[in-house]
Every structure is written in C-alpha cells, then in structure tokens.
Amino acid sequence: MRYLTDFADQAVILPVVLAVAVTLALQGWRRGAITWLVVVMGTFAATLCAKLMFLSCSPLFGPMDVQSPSGHVAAATVVTGGLAAMLTRRRDSIIPAALVAAVVIGLSRLLLGMHSLPEVIIGALIGLAGAAALMRFAGRPPALRLSPLIAVVVIVATVLHGLHLPAEAAIRHTAYRAAQFIPACRGTPVWRHRGTG
Which residue has the higher pLDDT, 184 or 139? Predict the structure, then answer.
C-alpha cells in the first residue's frame, strides 16, 4: 500500500503537474496548459484551506473524526481525471477516472491508517470538484501527441517515487498558530493528543 500511495505524494504530483503543463504548451495547447495549472493548483489550494480549517478548529470537528482531509486523494483524483481526458481525448472520461483514483488512493490511505474515512471522502470531493472544473474549462483536447505526454508522466513519477514533502508538519504548525487567533477554535487541538499520523 505504501508503494501505491507514494505516487500521490506532493513530491511526485507537483513535478508531474508542471511537466504536463510544459508538454501541453510545447504541443501548442496553451489553453489546456493554463487551465490544467490553474485548476490543479486551485484544487491543491482548496485542500490546504480545508486542512488548515479542520486542524485549526479541531476541537469543533473532533467528534466528526476529521483532522486533515487527504491531500493525496485530492491530488490523485484531479490529476488522474485530467490525464485520462487528455489521453483518451474524451472529456467524459474525467469523472470515471477521477473516481477510480479516489477509491484506490483513498483505500491505501485508510489501510495505512493515515486518514479516517471522512478525511478521505472530503479529499475525494475536493479532487472531484477540480476534475469537474477541468472538464468545464479546458475544452476538448486537440490531437495531442500522446507519447511525449505519457513519457513525461512515467519518467517524472518513476524518478521521484518514494520522495516525500514534509508539508504536513508545516501545515499543522500554521494551523496551531491560526487557532490562537480564532476564539471559537481555541483549546487543545485534538491532533495534539493523537500524534501526527
């Protein structure tokens, strides 16, 4: 499961996203490249905001078993959906592919004990919203040369697989500091008691 879930780590996903954008731009689909970057980064930003909200106010959300929505699931969902549309040249392949990624990475996160079911579901919903935005704004992909696109994704993901960005610690620290300024969120955060898993 660890091998599988590592493909959705930000240390792999971010370079893949940038490499795909460059490949699309070099093939002349600038609208697709810009939409890809804006939507995927917007999905990451929405995930970060959700993490900060739930972590900052964990005393309020503790009974829901939500501390940190899954960024792995959100990232895998939006990226897989977008890649499926480009590789199949069909916009209607975005949501099914995104759902498969959400289920596969979501299960890996659950089995590894990294997230609760509500955290996986929230991550999947954020990723699916991003995938739907890609479907809405990117337009139909032109006749792209698929081999460079596939090669870029495979090479970057393979080379970087196993690397991890230590973003979660920084997010938790920021959330703890933010909680000090929000009266409703003051108190001992639930995640301080449960550790950092």
Answer: 139
Do 55 and 191 contact (CB within 8 A), yes or no?
yes
Kindly report the average pLDDT of the chain as a whole number.
87
List, for residues 147-188, the tens digit of each pLDDT value: 999 999 999 999 999 999 888 888 888 887 777 777 666 655
Residue 140 has pLDDT above 80, yes or no: no
On the CB side of 192, how many CA atoms lie within 13 Å of its CA? Answer: 13
Residue 55 CA to residue 176 CA, distance in Å, equals: 7
Rounded distance between C-alpha atoms, residue 197 and residue 175, angstroms: 16
Answering whether pTM is above 0.85, one says yes
CB atoms within 10 A of CB 19: 17
Give the distance, in angstroms, between the CA of residue 102 and the centroid of all CA atoms in the same chain: 10
Answer whether 30's CB lies under 8 Å from 21's CB.
no
Region 113-127 average pLDDT: 95
Tokens at residue 146, please? 């698929």
Helices (H), 112-197: 117-137, 146-160, 167-179, 190-194
Residue 114: HSE in the Cβ half-sphere, 13 Å Cα cutoff: 20
- CA gap 35, 135 in Å, rounded: 10
Burial of 101 from C-beta contacts in 10 A (0-12 / 13-18 / 19+): buried
